[in-house]
Write a structure and sequence with these properties.
single chain; 3 domains; 17-stranded antiparallel beta sheet; three-stranded antiparallel beta sheet
Length: about 325
């Protein structure tokens, strides 16, 4: 059945992509675990961007698991990478709905609904307007356990849930916010942590890693960053990007969009072009990023983590 379903998807893509005198309309891409474009068969999931080859302010997209089952659907402002705007729906691979949320200005906003893979509702959450991306920005309004028993009533009760698909956390919710002592562990049960909250704000936390070492922290997440700041990084890119000597490349302008991963040891890896200008300039952009190696790693609950960056490199015309 899964093979047949995936065949149907391929047929639909062909229909979407070639009509009106064989002019391409939509595009299907295959992506790996790092959201990098790859070949069919090596992919983890695929994405269809409707009307990709036309100029629009937004594009409908649908993603599929490798099995062919639907993974997510929504609208993106950028056709080359997801900049979700409006309603975004995700699905478990068994076909059950996983979440319904809304995005505005690259942030989740308003009410969001999460579900168990059985189809039962898990939680109703309200996201708040907040300029600080690491500050408390949501309230838990209602929640249910796996047995479909309600455990949070109008923002109050004891809550246990998955967090970012990696951790299971539990503690008290008061007026929609975390309060007092919270405990958690990762799915493999090799990392545990204890945290203290006041009105949703993290006061302190201690992670115990797989070797039994305790690591204190006061921030849930710290993004990887250049040692000397983002300005130093962008200045480096600006002054070290070398155009080919040919006149045609000297006068070329535009933006090269690329992404890369800062590993746990602060090295740069997995540099990939999202949307380029041409092969020579794209390769120079990759070389420039590779040669900048003065990064500080990202941290999650005191432990180093991989962090992905997505940036544009703007090339002004030399005319």
């Amino acid at each position: 059945m899964k093979i047949k379903l995936y065949t149907i998807i391929a047929i639909l893509v062909t229909f979407f992509s070639y009509s009106q005198a064989n002019k391409p309309i939509s595009r299907m891409i295959f992506l790996d675990s790092l959201d990098t474009e790859t070949s069919q068969g090596e992919h983890l999931y695929s994405r269809i961007i409707k009307n990709y080859f036309s100029d629009r302010t937004s594009y409908e997209f649908t993603e599929y698991y490798k099995s062919g089952n639907i993974k997510s659907t929504g609208i993106t402002k950028n056709k080359d990478y997801l900049e979700i705007d409006g309603t975004y729906i995700t699905y478990f691979e068994n076909g059950k709905k996983e979440s319904i949320s809304n995005y505005k200005n690259k942030k989740t906003t308003g009410k969001s609904f999460n579900y168990y893979d059985t189809g039962n509702i898990q939680s109703e959450i309200e996201y708040l307007e907040n300029e600080d991306e690491f500050a408390v920005n949501y309230k838990v309004l209602q929640a249910w356990n796996k047995e479909n028993q309600q455990v949070i009533f109008d923002g109050n009760g004891k809550f246990e849930s998955f967090e970012n698909e990696h951790y299971i956390v539990n503690g008290i919710i008061a007026n929609g916010l975390r309060e007092g002592k919270w405990e958690g562990y990762n799915k493999s049960n090799t990392i545990k942590f204890i945290e203290n909250y006041a009105k949703g704000k993290l006061i302190s936390g201690i992670t115990t890693d797989s070797n039994g070492i305790e690591i204190p922290y006061t921030l849930l997440f710290e993004k990887a960053k250049p040692e000397k700041g983002l300005k130093h990084f962008y200045d480096y890119v600006r002054y070290n990007f070398v155009r080919p000597n040919e006149t045609e490349w000297q006068n070329t302008s535009g933006k090269i969009h690329l992404k890369f991963t800062i590993e746990k040891n602060a090295t740069v890896n997995n540099i990939a072009i999202i949307k380029g200008i041409n092969e020579k300039l794209d390769q120079e952009a990759i070389r420039t990023i590779q040669t900048y190696n003065k990064w500080l790693p990202g941290y999650s609950r005191g432990l180093p983590v991989r962090v992905q960056y997505r940036i544009p490199i703007t090339l002004p015309s030399n005319k």
